[in-house]
Amino acid sequence: METSRRQIVAYVTVRFSGGSSESLEPDCGDQDEIAEGLGTIRTAIDMARDLTAGLGSLMRPEMPRSQHDLRDLLRVALDLLGTLRIARHDVCLGLPEAALPIWANPTELLQVVVNLAINACDSGAEGDVATVTIRAMPAGTPPPSRLPDAGERVPEGSPVSIFTVADTGAGIAPEVLARMFQRNFTTKGQAGTGLGLLIVSSILQGNSAALWVDTVPGKGSTMTVAWPCRAVAPWLAPAATPSQAKRPTLPARPDPDLLRGVRALVVDDLPDVSRVLAEMLESAGATAFPETDPHLVKQVLSEAPRDWSVLVTDLHMPGCDGHALARFAMTLSPPVPVVLVTARPDTLGDFSLRDFAAVLSKPVGAADLAHAVRATLDARKTAVPDG
After folding, report:
1. 363: cis peptide before it, omega within 30°?
2. Diameter over CA atoms, the chain
3. Are 104 and 73 a contacting pair, CB within 8 Å?
4. Tell me: the pLDDT tens digits for 337-346?
5. Are 281 and 313 within 8 A, CB to CB?
6. pTM score, two decimals?
7. Kindly report the CA angle at 163 between 231 and 57, in degrees rounded to 5?
8. CATH number at residue 375
9. E-assigned strand segments in 66-141
10. What CATH number is attached to the domain comprising 218?
11. Which of 152, 192, 232, 264 could form a disulfide with 186 if both were Cys (CB 3.0 to 4.6 A apart)?
């Protein structure tokens, strides 16, 4: 007799209090569907574990990545949506016949797909259930030519695999579209955390992947994701360096005396991010002070600019962004150099880059951050000799 998914859920619910999903596997016997269901549960548990581990800073830890077929991971993502959601929203999956290589950590890719798909399911107007389609595009499909709405710009000619998550919902209003990837922004009221799309953006950034949003109010939305087919190096651009010579490979941990004597202010409106960045600088010998309020940072700088060697700042913050802080810091006597650490370096033009002594992309490593600060201070010392 065929075992239904509902029976699987009931079986696991009754037995799960006695142990992990792995402990249930010996009880499956020859019931392949129960074994398959437990495998799905294990995947969901692993996703949740990795997700909560990364929530502290939202600067993704270095996740192990390898080659995968995008089609296989999309099948798993569909299964993780659950039969009730699939049935209610008529979720369907379209896959090409040929393999679609991607370089990814499966948990990260699944977090992106599942998050986008759940949002698509929730996109319907009141009383109007949205239908959802997840589709992988054939190999060789080019990404959109415009700048992405989240993640990194795809370098021309870079091989990517592309998938879309489309819905027939209410569409996205312009004011929501402008803020949907910002911290703590949600349209779901108390039911939303404001973290879902921020996590998606962080994962895309860490994988040099990109996302574009196309929406028509009242007619639905399509999220297009381009994911690298092979390993790529993270984007890093020291803005004040005139030479574009290749940077040397840096160790994972900086020299503990590299920034000895340096006093750094670190501002990011997400507390854990500012704290982690400060700890990175302290691991290189600096004295670093994390802060979340850019207005308070302006006040501290203005009262005693000589007390600070460098300011490390985020770009997009409520009330006062990184550009405004950098321009303010340069009016002080003496000026305080500013290093920008941002998840959206693709939004910076040549003119706006001039506001910063260096620009680093999130997620950033401790050695990259410490060496960028060191190079900034050395360049400033050369330009303005002591005395």
Report:
1. yes
2. 88
3. yes
4. 999 998 777 6
5. no
6. 0.50
7. 60
8. 3.40.50.2300
9. 66-69, 92-94, 101-104, 132-136
10. 3.30.565.10
11. 192
